[in-house]
Amino acid sequence: MYTVIKILSSAIIIGVVTEVARRFPLYGGIIAALPLISLLSIIWLTVQGQNNEQILQFTWGVLIGLPATIVLLGAVYIALKNHLHLGLAISIGLICWGMFLGIQRWLFS
Fold it and tell me: Structural domain boundaries of the chain?
């Protein structure tokens, strides 16, 4: 039952964000940047009985992933601003994301 509720709530959030973004792109982007998924995940982990240590590890993972996500979005923004195809822009963003995570891991291991 939890799985169905999680899927439906995620779909509703994505639907609302894309509708707002379609009408008001800047506000849609701001809403998309909200930590909705992270907070919902923490709530669902708690509801499903995960202990505090597991939630702490999840939260740490989110914090580690934030800089790489910023790099990904920056790369996609720059690529699109330079009139690259969306698929190529996303590919470049994902490559930058992976490289940044690799550098982070190397620096902090």
Answer: 52-109
